[in-house]
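Following up on my earlier thread - several people asked me to post the actual chain instead of describing it. Fair enough. Here it is, all 64 residues.
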Amino acid sequence: MERIAERIILVTGDSDFIPAMKFARRNGIQVMLSTLGHGVKDELKDHSDFLIEEGLKEIMKNKK
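Reply from S.P.:
Thanks for posting it. Predicted structure:
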């Protein structure tokens, strides 16, 4: 099977995505989780490779 992605960026706080995150990581895909500054369950953070906790305002400010 050909891999179409090396990493994904998931912008969510919904723990329903955990099975998909586990599947991606088992298949060698890095999972980046962006919380946009909102609190999320620790379990969601545990299943990501990278965590971006900045809010949208901070992200946009850093792009200027």
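Residues 7-62 form one domain. That should answer part of your original question.
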